[in-house]
Amino acid sequence: MEKTGYPRNNVLCIDMRSFYASIEAVKRGLDPMVAQLAVVGDVNRPGSIVLAASPALKEKHGISNVSRFFELPNDPNIVIAPAHMADYLDVSIEITKLLNQYAPKEAIHPYSVDEVWVTVNGMEKLFGTRWQMAASIKQDILENFGITCSIGIGDNKFLAKVMMDLYAKKEGIAECTYDDVKEKLWPHPVQDIWGIGRRMQHNMNRMGIITLGQLARFPFKQLRKRFGVMGEQLYWHAWGIDLSPVLGHFTKTEQKGFGHGISLLRDYSGDDVAVCILDLCEEVCRRARTANKAGRTIHLGITYSETSGGGFSRSKSIPLSTNSTMDMYHVCMELFSTFYDGLSDIRHVYVTLNNLYDDDGNEQLSLFDNTTQKKDIGYVMDDIRAAYGPTAILRATSYTKAGITIDRSSKIGGHQA
Asked: Which InterPro entries match (predicted)?
């Protein structure tokens, strides 16, 4: 395939090695690449997940980011560190500021808290070749933060990301151009490539596609017919082609709905879960009011515990849009009483408010309900929380054992701040 017509950019994909574990090691004066350290979401729960393991711990004991706290071996050399999400976010922001010394803000595209793309087009006179710039960034991050990073270099975002995943994590820095795709990417199994999960791998393997090279040579029309737009994208990726933008500020797309869910720390009964649903509705409606939106479709998702298995996911549309907590709560409880089997323990709850409209005060009012008063109360509660903190004013049920708001208020992304 002729690739001369496709854009060639200088893109770096930078990944911080075992980011959370590295930060905790540095805080303790340890070498992140030598210390055996595990970052645990909640050290008071044996079943809590290991959020990050240092490279040495992974290599010696095979601990990964899906391991559980109780699975850690009884090794006195292992350091157990509770998660501090606020610290990780702070360091991530500071690293982004450092990268801004090498490239303008519109050329820096964060992918996650520990991974970022940087487009360095036109920077050669200041910093040298893209390989030299990658080496400079890698050294700067190490000297300023004590953290090792891996950097993939490519003609586009896909090539930079794949090189980081496949080669740079072992070599430190790795590079791939369009001309290197056949040699460096095609021999790899499809599941090693970014964007191909287990289900897609299984489907491709059934079609006789095992390696990326076989994917590249597979008839394009058949891939598009079988997988739609995804098949088309994967075909072009197999040839190393990615036309996603590498420069520019990416604006947030229009909000389609507001959702909030939680994986519960214990099995909840049907009576307990009502309190949890109320707290979730409170948060969803707060977010909707902040965006001056109201919705007409309310969704409730329930997952039972592993011993029970199953669950349900149902929604209901209402005549008038709302962002009132109690309106949403009553609909959720109606769905719950209709579809809950009455026996199973519950381990995950999720609520959403969709089918959004602008909350501009021009909606049709009901003659039989105090809609305006409920809405005003909601906005007043939001103002109090904005001024004095998320727990400044709570419903009484939030203080019960089944409440979740107080515990989650001290967390970021479900983990301790």
From this structure: DNA/RNA_pol_sf, DNA_pol_Y-fam_lit_finger_sf, DNA_pol_Y-fam_little_finger, DNA_polymerase-Y, IMS_HHH_1, Rev_trsase/Diguanyl_cyclase, UmuC
Query: Distance between CA 28 and CA 316 in Å, rounded?
Result: 52
Interval 210-255: pLDDT, tens: 999 999 999 999 999 999 999 999 999 999 999 988 888 655 567 7
Catalytic, out of 71, 94, 115, 282: 115
Domain ranges of the chain: 9-109+122-151, 185-238, 257-416
CATH topology assigned to domain 185-238: DNA polymerase; domain 1 (1.10.150)
Cβ atoms 110, 95 nearer than 8 A: no
Of 180, 212, 228, nearest in space to 220 by CA: 228
Residue 40 to residues 69, 88, 359, Cα–Cα distance (Å): 7, 14, 42
| Cα(14)–Cα(237) distance, integer angstroms | 20
Which of 89, 117, 82 lies closest to 102, judged by CA?
117
- 8 A C-beta contact, residue 2 and residue 14: no
363 catalytic? Reply is no
The predicted pLDDT at position 65 comes to: 76
Point out which residues pair with 376 in neighbouring strands.
Answer: none
- In whole angstroms, what is the distance from residue 138 CA to residue 148 CA? 7
Q: Which amino acid is at 398?
A: S
